[in-house]
Structures are given as C-alpha cells and as structure tokens.
Write a structure and sequence with these properties.
Blueprint lengths: L21 H12 L3 E2 L1 H5 L9 E6 L3 H4 L7 H4 L2 H13 L4 E7 L26 H4 L7 E6 L10 H7 L5 E7 L1 H19 L4 E5 L3 E2 L5 H7 L6 H14 L3 E3 L1 E2 L1
The protein binds zinc ion.
Length: 251
C-alpha cells in the first residue's frame, strides 16, 4: 500500500501485531488523557519566585484566526474563552507580562504563497481578538507584530527576553499548535538550551488549538489537507519530547 512515507511501514499490516504506528497512536491518546492540571498560584511561586518572573504568551489570538477572514476557524475560536480566563486569573495573581506575538502581515507577504492572505497590517483581522481587547488590563498587553510563523525572527521578542533576564517561566497559549505555537515554544526552549538559561516553558493543552481541513475538502479546493486532531496531539507530544511541559490545564 502506498502511504505518505512511500512504503507500507506507516500503516498496520494485517496479522502483524504491534507493527506500524498503531501502538504509538494508542500511546498518544493515553498520554494526552494522562496530562495533569497545575495550580497557577503554585506555578507562579515555584522556587520562591515572584509573579513578575512569569510571562504569559498568547500567539495569534486575532480576529483573523477566530472570527473573520480566510483563516478564521471555529476550532480556534473555542480556545478564546479558556485563554481569557487564564489571563484574568494571572492578572489577579499579579502577573505583569502578557506578550502577544501576532501576524501583522505585509500585503505582499511571502507566506501568502503557502497560505491564503490573512491578518494584513491595518485590517481588523490583524487585531487582537475582541474578547481579549475588552479586558480591563488590555493596556498591559505587549503586542509583537510578526510577518511569518516565527515569533522570534525579525520581531522584538528576542530583545524583550534579553531585557527581562528575571523572567524564566513562560506559559504559551494560542494557535496553531503545530505552527506558531510550536515555533514559539520551541524557540524559547532552544534559546534556553543554547545559552544555559534554564527556562521553564509550559503549554496548557486546553489553551492551544489548530485548524482542520479534511482530505475531501482539501481536494475540492486544491489544498493540502490538515487533520486538526492528529496534528494537534502530535505536535503537543513533539514539544514534550523537547522538554516543553505539556499540561492539561492551568487552574
Ligand atoms: Zn501568517
């Protein structure tokens, strides 16, 4: 059977127990079900820390990803409320750093060769989602405009990290799990590895999501399909492989 890998190793062979990827996929489901909830007050006070030593990051929770435009997705709109609750709770507990890397594309962004045009600078799509803009402490949000999937290439985020060496815990939320969230969490994690910074990077699984495009729908529009469930969980797992702490929920 032809598969993505050009061989039959990816799929389970009839009668060959334990072969193929099925055992791993079963493991992945159990791993996801076993994720723990962590207490935010305990998290913030880890090792005697002050709340100002933790940053909460929310990537691409914009109008264009949630409510209108070519990339707006109902799956992603579902994480607005859990993220809003987390930010409110963090603010109540005196967290001061709310960092929002957001697509703010040039009209002729190179990325639009791979994705439909979205979140162009100056449009409603590029604005932080309305539910977060309505928060009384929204003036504390620090938005980092970006023009690619990366929150760290050609943005002010690396400079911000350099200027805040006391911040060494990062809660990463937003979308999409396998795209900008993955790039952001991995960038902070790899920065830590490269420089011996001992950063803690945590992703609450209920505060990240990705979009879904079925094989059938993708064929109709001539695009590549994107299985939201599988890619969400695979990329959560991939972050865990690299020392990103994946938790079910931060309470
Ligand atoms: Zn983009």
């Amino acid at each position: 059977m032809e598969t993505l890998l050009g061989s039959d190793r990816f799929v389970r062979q009839p009668g060959a127990a334990g072969s193929g990827s099925e055992p791993f996929l079963r493991f992945l489901i159990e791993w996801r079900q076993g994720l723990k909830t962590v207490s935010l007050p305990e998290y913030l006070a880890t090792g005697g820390r002050m709340p100002a030593q933790t940053a909460v990051l929310t990537v691409d929770l914009t109008e264009g990803m949630c409510h209108e435009g070519a990339l707006a997705s109902p799956r992603i709109a579902r994480i607005v409320e859990p993220i809003r609750r987390l930010l409110v709770h963090a603010h109540e507990l005196d967290v001061q750093h709310f960092l929002l890397p957001q697509d703010t594309h040039a009209p002729d962004a190179e990325e639009f060769a791979n994705w439909p045009a979205h979140c162009v600078a100056g449009t409603i799509e590029s604005q932080t989602v309305r539910e977060l803009r309505a928060l009384l402490f929204a003036s504390q949000f620090r938005v980092f405009p970006k023009n690619s999937l990366s929150s760290a290439i050609a943005t002010d985020l690396p400079g911000w990290l350099e200027h805040h060496p006391e911040v060494d815990q990062f809660i990463v939320t937003g979308d999409c799990t396998d795209l900008c969230v993955y790039q952001l969490a991995m960038d902070i994690r790899l920065r830590s590895h490269a420089r011996g910074l001992d950063y803690r990077v945590t992703v609450p699984a209920d505060c990240v999501e990705t979009f879904h495009l079925s094989v059938e729908a993708a064929k109709e529009i001539g695009a590549l399909p994107h299985d939201g469930e599988l890619l969400h969980h695979l990329f959560l797992y991939h972050m865990a492989l690299n020392g990103v702490e994946i938790v079910a929920h931060v309470d």
